[in-house]
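Q: My hope is that you can spare some time for a protein that puzzles me. Underneath my words sits a plain record pairing an amino acid chain with its backbone structure tokens. Those tokens are not coordinates but codes from a learned vocabulary of shapes. Thank you; the sequence and its tokens follow:
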Amino acid sequence: MKPERWREVERLYNAALELEPAQRALFLAKACAGDQSLRAEVESLLAHGDQAGSFIEAPAMEMVARELAADSASSVVSLSMIGKAISHYRILENRCTLRSALCS
């Protein structure tokens, strides 16, 4: 996507977020003026934002602690989260070290 197009998508996305969900379709119909691919891109971002919910609002270490606590089936708790999923994210590799519960 060209930078100019991305800026337009971002502008419309941010404007749509300021509206109630019921008002967004009418806003996008007017703002996109028949540009269906622009409208589809903005609607896709809005839909994904709704699906993501409050995942990012929770601190990562808190989510890891909850995940480890929930894994009470095993008697040995593994600190490795590689390969595990948190919400719709999957941990692919360890890029930091655990030091006083903070990554450096």
In short: Residues 38 and 54 are 26 Å apart (CA to CA). Residues 56-92 form one domain. The helical segments are 3-17, 21-32, 36-52, 60-70.
